Amino acid sequence: MTLPVIERKPASRPLPAEQREEVLASPGFGDHFTDHMVTITWTEDAGWHRARLVPYGPLPIDPANLTLHYAQTVFEGLKVHRRPGGALAAFRPEDNARRFQASARRMAMPELPVETFVAACEALVQQDRAWVPSHPGHALYLRPFMFATESGLGVRAAREFLFVVIASPTEGYFAGEIRPVSVWVAEDHVRAAPGGTGAAKTGANYAASLMGQAQAAAQGCDQVVWLDALERRWVEEMGAMNLFFVYGERVVTPGLTGTLLPGITRASLLTLARDLGHEAEEARISLQDWRRDSADGSLTEVFACGTAAGVVPVGSVKTAHDRWTVGDGRPGRVTMRLREALRAIQSGTAADTRGWMREMAQTGHRAPGRS
Ligand SMILES: *Cc1c(COP(=O)(O)O)cnc(C)c1O
Predict the structure, then answer these.
(1) Range of the domain at 109
(2) Number of domains the chain contains
(3) Which site in 7, 118, 122, 310 is 20 to 30 Å from 93, CA atoms measured?
(4) Domain stops at, among 135, 170, 205
(5) 164 near 146, Cβ under 8 Å?
(6) What angle, 0 to 180 degrees and rounded to 10, lies between the N-to-C axes of helices 333-347 and 264-275?
(7) What is the mean pLDDT of the chain?
(8) Which residues carry this modification: N6-(pyridoxal phosphate)lysine (predicted)?
(9) Same structural domain, 235 and 270
(10) Residues 306-325, buried b or exposed e (16+ Cβ, 10 A)?
(11) Neighbours of 16 (CB within 10 A)
(12) For residues 37 and 29, what is the distance between their CA atoms, to the nearest angstrom?
């Protein structure tokens, strides 16, 4: 298959450098977008074609657009880090590309070749490289997504899709000092059921989770924790992040049962934990285990992980019946060690021995805004 060549039509008037620097000083999360986006069209007849880098802007949408009605859409999230010497590198983008294919398959959508996914990200990063924050811990968050562009109300898989990559400078989801989050365990609602779409990164899973998140907030908690749909017994995920349980030097994360999102941060931390001499395994953890092992002190730490926020300690748990503290309620030693190990690889202060970082652009001393 030949890959579409990305035609460049850059903005004639990108945001002035002064205003861009203002944004970069305090970017928030997902509030600001760079000057450009990449779009690639798919149709049943022509396959992937019409790849373009164009100014960031609204997309026209028909009221009968199939995505608005039947939610045929998938997305990804990955970060580009500025490294010592000026290189801009993405963390494991091929893994995001492969997961994007898996999500698309589940939602009856066409699969974008891995190389095209990466090339689209790379084109955008090269064009908008001045938007990659230099503040430590900040990064450029890439949001590739795909949705049905065909119109009609008949229920079926669409025959036209648009793939888009946009980019947003970010300081991380839970920015600032490391504050452990409190969680509310949802026992009335589920995020995903066996055979469903829980392993796909699709908007519908998020829509299904928002009520649980709102209930967590009403309970005074930061985040919602999901249990399995069948027994309402096994811990699955926290909001849109994977969970790890630390028993002394041993770390455990729920196995990929098909109802969890296979996080790339999760996979990376399993590897890093072993590199650091920890025992690391995938196993089932029940809500009852969590409560009992916290009480008897064998469970020393719990943390959540994902691209947007990195590694986040979980300090306390609340259910309809009780509440308890994890460890001493403060960020744990193993949590912080893994958090730093991951950040060091991403920021370039530790060696990337596994080839996780993929260079997408060089800034060097060249002026930004030109390739
Ligand atoms: C994206 C996501 C994660 C985290 O995946 P990463 O690849 O680590 O960013 C975890 N759970 C859900 C539901 C997600 O959508």
Answers:
(1) 7-170
(2) 2
(3) 7
(4) 170
(5) yes
(6) 110
(7) 95
(8) 201
(9) yes
(10) bbbbbbbbbbbbbbeeeeee
(11) 9
(12) 18
pTM for the structure as a whole: 0.96
Domain assignment present for residue 39? The answer is yes
Q: Cα separation of 224 and 231, whole Å?
A: 18
Burial of 143 (0-12, 13-18, 19+ CB in 10 A): middle
- Cβ–ligand 1 distance for 191 under 6 Å, the answer no
Q: Same domain for 27 and 142?
A: yes
For the Cβ of 95 lying below 6 angstroms from any atom of ligand 1, the answer is no
> 9 alpha carbon to ligand 1 midpoint, in Å?
32
Q: CA-to-CA distance for 254 and 271, rounded, in angstroms?
A: 15
Strands 323-325 and 235-238: unpaired
Residues 51 and 129 in one domain: yes
Average pLDDT over residues 141-170: 97
